[in-house]
Specification:
The chain is mainly alpha-helical. The chain contains 12 helices and 9 strands. It is 41% helix and 6% strand. The chain is globular and about 50 Å long.
Amino acid sequence: MTSRIPHTLTRNPHLTLTAAALTLTATLTQTQPTYNTPSGDIHLTAVKHSIIQLIETNAEQRDDGTSLVGTFVRLAWHASGTYSQADHTGGSQGGRMRFDPEASFGANAGLHVARAALESIKAQHPGISYADLYCLSGVAAIEHAGGPAIEFELGREDAVSGESSPPDGRLPDADKGSSKGTIEHVREVFYRMGFGDREIVALLGAHALGRCHTDRSGYWGPWTFAENTMSNEYFRLLVEERWSPKTMHNGKPWTGPDQFEDSTGKLMMLPSDIALIRDPSFRKYVEMYAKDEDLFFKDFAQAFSKLLSLGVPLSTAAGKPWYQFW
């Protein structure tokens, strides 16, 4: 991964610059976006603990079986998934979803709930940047849900405005009107960020968590019966269940976007989920993960760490991104 370090960047003491990065800094123009670096010590474990406490408290208040777990994972994903390796724009550096235009992207509908909830964590730990906090919320949520430990480093800085936000349309859509079009779209989005087919399938396994909401995406329902538990159940259901187009909802004709449901009508899959079992290359990984949760966790942990690092300056160990340390 190539590093782009803004000329006007004030460095965070927790991320040491390499000699190569210093050379790159000197060559960049004055047109790069300006970032703010939070001050004070940041204790990663303490921040994660506070996020987990927030998840638990919020779940108790809801008392309906839902939680912030899936929403925090989506926040981390969408804060990072705008990256383009072609021009090194987008990614998790900057925490730009606090501002328009990213805050108003259609793909980010409903994420104001997660950002607002994290304000209490920011108040408890003012030393952490919003960019780090948004990503860390996803890491904490996955680990709290029983998923794998995610390699994570601090060091993202906050942009002072949304002027450096990437264009809208970089996040994946659930449907492109046909199976072929949807498959091509999924690959286009993830290839742009530097992911291969195996990583794509592993990352989409995060759909084991959370649910869709009609007032946000227009879709409805959870992918699994244990939406607050990270597992390989999403893959098992994809290959073992019979999925048919949804036509009814609560006794009335379904008027939302095209989606699929299981035999009970209680679980859902998006067209982009079904695309994974219709494409031979994707399907072989779906079947692999359906049989081996440990392998899924291993691949997911590495791919998710890579996702969260996109657009972030290189760490110190031989100039390698931290997701390549192991």
